[in-house]
Amino acid sequence: MASMIGSKVERKEDKKFLTGRGRYTADINLHNQSYAIFIRSPHARAKITGIDTSKAKKASGVIDVLTGKELQDDKIGGLIAGWKIVSKDGTDMKCPAHPALATDLVNYVGDHVALVVAESLQEAKDAAELVKVDYKVLKAVVSTGQAMDSDTIHDGIDKNLCFDWELGDKAKAEEAFSSADKVVEMNIVNNRLVPNAMEPRASIGDYNPSSEELTLYTTSQNPHLSRLVMSAFNAIHPEHKFRVIAPDVGGGFGSKIYPYSEDVVMAWAAKRLQRPVKWVCERTESFLSDCHGRDHITNCSVALKNDGTVTGIKVDTIANLGGYASLFATVTPTYLYGPLVLGLYNIPAAYCNVKGVFTNTAPVDAYRGAGRPEATYLIERIMDKAAKELGMDRAEFRKKNFIRQFPHQQCLVHNIDSGDYDAHFDKALKLADYAGFEKRKADSAAKGKLRGIGFSTYIEACGIAPSAAVMSLGAGVGLWESAEIRFNPTGNISVFTGTHSHGQGHDTTFAQIVSDKLGVSVENVELVHGDTDKGPFGMGTYGSRSLAVGGSAISKACDKIVEKGKAVAANMLEAKPEDIEFKDGEFIVPNTNKKKTIGEIAFACYLPGTYGEVKSPLPEGMEPGLKETAFYDPINFSFPAGSHICEVEVDPTTGETKVDTYTCVDDFGNLINPMIVEGQIHGGLAQGIGQALYENAYYDETGQLVTASYMDYCMPRADNFPEFRIDYTCTPATSNPLGVKGCGEAGAIASPPAVMNAVVDAIGTEVTMPATAEKVWRAIREKSKSAKKAA
Amino acid sequence: MAKLSLTVNGKKIEKEVPDNTLLATFIRENLNLTGTHVGCDTSQCGACVVHVNGKSVKSCAMFAADANNSEIMTIEGLEKDGKLHPVQESFKKHHGLQCGYCTPGMVMSSIDLLKTHKNPTDDEIRKGLEGNICRCTGYQNIVASVKDAIGKV
Predict the structure, then answer these.
(1) Cα–Cα distance, A648 to A631 (Å, whole number)
(2) How far is Cα A355 from Cα A533, in angstroms, rounded to an integer?
(3) Contact B135 A710 (CB under 8 A)
(4) Does B8 touch chain A if contact means CB atoms closer than 8 Å?
């Protein structure tokens, strides 16, 4: 059988989606179901002085109207931040209470105040209009930069400061700066984004009073962790009688990692009302209440030698956490960010300070890349600026500072196991025809257009895992992954994983691994995920971890199957287990014609009895059955890296920027399914280019989200992109048996600086993301005005 | 209430629904054809595109009552005798979908595009799909899927 690993296998999951048979949460309807509508705060910051639900409760079809008081009466706990960050003064981060339904205070537009449950959606909507909430409106704190100098939002949290965290050796960094030939400084804004998975969130609670089982159907990337949090912290229901099902999920990009207030409330309401309760988010509701991404302001500087060596970096960032600290909100701008500000360069001294601040905006949490795009943006932007100020070629300057020895212990956190940065950069420079750029620039100029080229040579820490490492840095859980392989008596295989697929194609990729390892066809391997009642506890999908960690657990479980199979085959073939070889689905005694297929072995494992003369196929004392579980906890993160090159053409009369070409050469280690990997890159690029040129979540000074619909928030469309040129290099990861590094986030991490470096190169002046036509047009005008003044 | 008589995926349907029922709601809730998705509330995303009398329409932007006496085709109606429609086949072959949520609308829009443009260029395909948002694929493989289906619709 030809190897499946490395093959462009068409996806097993596609047919159901293409024929309209996907089953998303909103598609599920339960017997006797009721419908829920949330009453949300119209104010960014206000005291709730009264809630009158009496009229709404009497309205047609209304089953109940629930508020934070009932939630408190039932002792339902609040939402949690799952990663403890310690400030530089040694104190723990400060997080406010985060009730699923607000009782006294609301902290952002869209914050949850009450729930109307009715027999029909229309009746719930009508009754929602009758709930009267009295607010005393307070001055909202909106600006990331001014949050520390504004009113205190949460009692006891001075300066709205959740943490003031540092990383690195400050004295050593200062030394590098004091002995530098040149220092280049830069102020950077990383714009706030709304993840915008195309499937809006949804949640259905269902309680069975007979079995006392509570089931929650929800749009989650992480059903096991959701159940754990809702059992242990929200105290809704004991874990063993609580089932969380994440059926088909229409994209996540981080925004569906964590349980939301709506999940807590649906689970609780179903139990309280003893009726299934269904809530489906509308898009504007989703803009207001999904966790947002990014939103940093940073001052950074690099210390340089005249020969182009970078000797140090200093980073000072304020990260907006929004109204409350969401589950991964505190790790995203710290440990997922700080260590990566070094990029893939050999920088011997670094210091990074991050202040996490609360504001009256939607909570900010992990969004595709989570911390790593912000880090990559700053290092790649300042590398460009430094090269220009040194008068060096930007490509040469990068190469001068590449890490070349592996493993490489960086001066901050990571020990990078493998890589070859010259290989992907050289390949990308060739593929993008860097040598021909000046000619293309002249051609553009002849048409009255400004052409620019931008590089982004990036690295990310992925395969978010090693439990020992992450727990020492404050994680509330270990980030291993689980797998179970059930070889069925008829010869096909059910594979259970604790990861979750919501577009990544795990059904296919993971089946390819099992197919190769056990010698069965991909068609005979079925992946099961997304249901806490099926398969072992797992940690879900995010941080490009599913294949590196979850896939490795599957690979390890396959090894255990083979090991048991060898013992059984040896017994059946009258040989020693250590002599048995396993290849292409067959157990063979070498140099004989004695062999058994893995299907025969599986069948034998389930029929261990002795029949007359035929003795049991199982060695004495061996348990019957062929099912193995494995938990995999890698020894290190994986470090995908690559080189992205963008060329833009700007029309100076309108400011419109067109991405003319986009080239990337990535090193993701080994590829299991190159077709799926390519799709992941495309999607990441579209999101990253979207951040650079189109997308921006904008709150006005009163805390109203101005960009709360697709009319106002510019989502990238098909006609915004050229055809991306994609290629790879490969240095396998040494931290997992598959040698894979992860590919889900790379596009979103690498592309914003590649695009912005190109835009700045084209127009010759700074502009912030998103580089909209208006902003670029203004920047060009400002530049020519100052040039005239200077003249 | 509006009395409706229409054909959906070749099947005659008679139903009575409230006047304010959107076509998307009618298809999903009354006919239980949940392949038609709703991704926004401003008729921007295109996840709900169906064909009304052979033309692609955002079904969230039309009342069910206005579809009276019309012929509707949803994503569920494309497969014939267990065989995928050429555009569905092409999306599978070229990895033109990931999470699958925008896919039904994207496929329905692509079919209409290929009916109105017999031999579209890449630019025409990209412009033609401008009313459908996909957050997963970066559109590249969708364009490849549509290209490969040229002449097969």
Answers:
(1) 46
(2) 40
(3) no
(4) no
Inter-CA distances, B91 with A769, B101, B117, B130, Å: 33, 14, 18, 17
Q: What percentage of residues in chain A have a pLDDT greater than 90?
A: 93
Q: Is B103 on the interface with A (CB under 8 A)?
A: yes
Asked if A502 reaches chain B (Cβ–Cβ under 8 Å), the answer is: yes
A708/A171 Cα distance (integer angstroms)? 45
Cα–Cα distance, A281 to A290 (Å, whole number):
10
3-state secondary structure of A778: helix
The DSSP line for A186-230 is EEEEEEEE----SSPPEEEEEEETTTTEEEEEE--S-HHHHHHHH
The closest of A561, A738, A732 to A632, measured between CA atoms, is A738
Residues 6+ apart with CB under 8 A from A321: A162, A329, A330, A333, A356, A357, A358, A359, A363, A364
Longest Cα separation, chain B: 46
What letter does residue A158 receive in the DSSP assignment?
Answer: G
Interface test with B, best of A7, A17, A658, A661 (most B CBs within 10 A): A17
For B12-25, what is each residue's pLDDT tens digit?
999 999 999 999 99
Q: Test A710 with B44 for CB contact under 8 angstroms.
A: yes
Phi-psi sector, B138: left (phi>0), alpha (psi -120 to 50), beta: left
Tell me which chain B residues have a C-beta less than 8 angstroms from the C-beta of A250. 37, 99-102
User: Which of B 129-148 lie inside 8 A of A, CB atoms?
Assistant: 129-130, 132-143
Of the candidates B42, B33, B56, B38, the residue with the CA atom closest to the CA atom of residue B101: B38
Residue A229 pairs in a beta bridge with none
Sole residue written with tokens 């493989």: B141
Which of A197, A284, A721 is facing B135, going by the closest CB pair?
Answer: A197
The alpha-carbon gap from A71 to the nearest alpha carbon of chain B, in Å, equals 30
The predicted complex's ipTM stands at 0.98
What one-letter code names the amino acid at A518?
Answer: L
User: How do A656-667 and A641-651 pair as beta strands?
Assistant: antiparallel
Cβ pair B98:A282 closer than 8 A: no
Summarize pLDDT for A489-548 with one digit per residue, the tens: 999 999 999 999 999 999 999 999 999 999 999 999 999 999 999 988 998 898 889 999
Closest partner residue to B143 among A19, A684, A718, by Cβ? A718
Instruction: Return the DSSP state at A549.
Output: I
Please indicate if any CB of chain A lies within 8 Å of the CB of B56: no
pLDDT bin (cut points 50, 70, 90) of residue A718 is very high
d(CA A726, CA A513): 24
Distance from CA of A296 to the nearest CA of B (A): 23
For B66, other C-beta atoms within 10 Å of its C-beta total 13
How many degrees, rounded to 5, is the angle at CA A696 between CA B42 and CA A296? 145
Find which of B83, B89, B135 to mutate to test the A interface (most A CBs within 10 Å of its CB).
B135
List of chain B residues whose C-beta atoms are within 8 Å of the C-beta of residue A18: 75, 84, 88, 91-92, 97, 100, 103, 107
Q: Residue A291 in 3-state DSSP? A: coil
Q: HSE (CB half, 13 Å, CA atoms) of A537?
A: 12
Rounded to 10°, the helix A552-573/A506-518 angle is 30
At A647-661, the pLDDT tens digits run 999 999 999 999 999
- Write out the two tokens for B66: 């206005």
Within 8 A by CB and 6+ apart from A693, the residues are A657, A659, A716, A720, A755, A769, A770, A771, A772
- What is the three-state SS of chain B? CEEEEEEECCEEEEEEECCCCEHHHHHHHHCCCCCCCCCCCCCCCCCCEEEECCEEEEHHHCEHHHHCCCEEECHHHCCECCECCHHHHHHHHCCCCCCCCCHHHHHHHHHHHHHHCCCCCHHHHHHHCCCCCCCCCCCHHHHHHHHHCCCCC
Residues of chain B above pLDDT 70, percent: 100
